[in-house]
């Protein structure tokens, strides 16, 4: 058996008395897409931040293609090598893009840093093309672009590094539904053409259904259910997963039905469910 692309083993992280992540383990295979879902405060983002290296784990380890990802890196070469293992795309690209730097320059600088011996020109064109940004966008500043275009820039910058794993933290949550669909299609297309693995952090089960083949359901820092996306979404075993599914607004729901579902879900974040946990 080849080593999985990413293996997380027993990750834990507490903030004071809050166990934000509690013994979380999962595997992402080469070319795979794993969704981490759960309500607010379930520990999804902290898990993602540990994978990326933005947060340290109190316990547990991350392996990329069998090699332990060091908790600390020393020097530029190690920092760049680590960045090539995992890249992250955030919900709001305005916060992660420099407001004074145009699209082409962002990509040029990233490529120069990681691949100083290569001519960046052809690769920049390839990346813009890959994420569906025309040459007109190449000179634009982030604020001159739409939300969807900015997310494409953030994606192009992450892909420029040729990472093994791309972590997407609520990466389409701020976009309206049609733009969301375009970005999700784009991500599916990139996955078909590369060996990249996705780790999708989202509270949106519709997104998970579209772009992941496996999911992990988190609640209070723990994994309550894991398995093939189709299986978990069509025949959820854990009551919390069922609750999450029941709280997804459906066409035709009146506002009070949506409000009730949201209330039920948010009270379940603080009070334990009665059944098997
Ligand atoms: N830096 C921090 N300091 C203190 N507590 C934190 C910190 N980061 C996260 N937490 C706590 O850890 C728990 C898990 O938070 P986390 O952001 O990982 O959850 P989440 O599932 O991503 O939620 P959301 O969808 O609301 O972002 C929460 O109770 C949160 O308040």
From TrEMBL:
Location of the ABC transporter domain: 6-245
Bias-annotated ranges (Polar residues): 266-277
Pfam families: ABC_tran, oligo_HPY
Gene3D superfamilies: P-loop containing nucleotide triphosphate hydrolases
PROSITE patterns per record: ABC_TRANSPORTER_1 (PS00211), ABC_TRANSPORTER_2 (PS50893)
UniProt region (Disordered), positions on chain: 258-277
One Gene Ontology term of the molecular function aspect: ATP binding
Domain of life: Bacteria
One biological process term in Gene Ontology: peptide transport
Transmembrane segments: none
Family classification: Belongs to the ABC transporter superfamily.
Full protein name: ABC transporter ATP-binding protein
Organism the protein comes from: Streptomyces qinzhouensis
């Amino acid at each position: 058996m080849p080593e999985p692309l990413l293996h997380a083993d027993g990750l834990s992280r507490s903030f004071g008395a809050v166990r934000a992540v509690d013994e979380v383990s999962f595997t992402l295979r080469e070319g795979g897409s794993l969704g981490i879902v759960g309500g607010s405060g379930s520990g999804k983002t902290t898990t993602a931040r540990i994978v990326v290296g933005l947060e340290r784990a109190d316990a547990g380890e991350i392996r990329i293609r069998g090699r332990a990802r060091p908790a600390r890196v020393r020097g530029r070469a190690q920092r760049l090598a680590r960045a090539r293992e995992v890249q992250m795309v955030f919900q709001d690209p305005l916060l992660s893009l420099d407001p004074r730097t145009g699209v082409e320059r962002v990509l040029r600088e990233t490529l120069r840093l990681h691949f100083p011996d290569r001519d960046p020109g052809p690769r920049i064109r390839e990346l813009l093309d890959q994420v569906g940004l025309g040459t007109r966008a190449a000179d634009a500043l982030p604020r001159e672009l739409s939300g969807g275009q900015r997310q494409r820039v953030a994606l192009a910058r992450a892909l420029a590094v040729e990472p093994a794993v791309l972590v997407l933290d609520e990466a389409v949550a701020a976009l309206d539904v049609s733009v969301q669909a375009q970005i999700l299609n784009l991500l599916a297309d990139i996955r078909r053409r590369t060996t990249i693995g996705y780790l999708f952090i989202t509270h949106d089960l519709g997104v998970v259904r579209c772009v992941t083949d496996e999911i992990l359901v988190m609640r209070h820092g723990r994994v309550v259910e894991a398995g093939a996306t189709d299986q978990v979404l069509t025949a959820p075993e854990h009551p919390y997963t069922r609750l999450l599914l029941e709280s997804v607004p459906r066409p035709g729901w009146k506002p009070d039905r949506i409000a009730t579902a949201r209330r039920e879900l948010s009270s379940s974040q603080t009070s334990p469910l009665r059944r098997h946990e």
